[in-house]
Amino acid sequence: MKHIGTFAIWYDTAVPGWVAVSDKQQQSFGSGAKGEQEATRYALREAFPQVATAVDHLCTQYPEATSRAWAAAELLVLGHVLNPDPAEPDEVARVRSQRQAKHQYRPLRQPDGTLACDCPDFERGGLALAGEAFTNQLLCKHLLAYWLACHLAWPLSRVTPTPLHPKRSHAGRFRGRAVTAVGQNNRHELVPSVAAAQYANGQPVLPAHLTHYKAYIAYTQQRPFSQEKLFSWSLGR
Ligand SMILES: [Zn+2]
Q: In the chain, what is the greatest distance between 2 CA atoms, to the nearest angstrom?
């Protein structure tokens, strides 16, 4: 049995099939993986309509993202998207594995500004979306869960991340980040030149994202806080 908001989802042998049950309603679905998927998505839509709307919006533009996007929504509402370890400056979040409760994946900011994840899906190449907003950015359900959290301003769970093995913790860490402070007072600051294009959090803007970046500034008269913020805005238009 699993719980999504006020819904409990389980396989009911009397139906037979997957059911999503809350104190107010019960809905039956088919059997097998498809029935479970339908029951889960039904509960997500009922219990977390804002999350479902964001997923629908993404999937309308990128149908190939559908299975990962719904899996990401589930990770998010189950509280599996955790704060990054403050001792790990390149980590943007931790995402608890659904299959192995104790395992956490690590979405990381790479030196080129893109995000990476250490899960098998990402390491196999993950999902590449055709849209300009995701140029050079491969995705997995953990990165999509992080993206959804950013998009929805969803509070990340405050669970102490599992400490990494010391060796792993220092491997491949990006040391070149100069600015980490939040630019609180630069709401109306225009960026003087494209060459120095930078998000308000100090992250450089990738050449592939400059069109969106400039459109954002033209529209809002301020620079986006981060790449996630820019993606979120681009997709929401
Ligand atoms: Zn991943």
A: 67
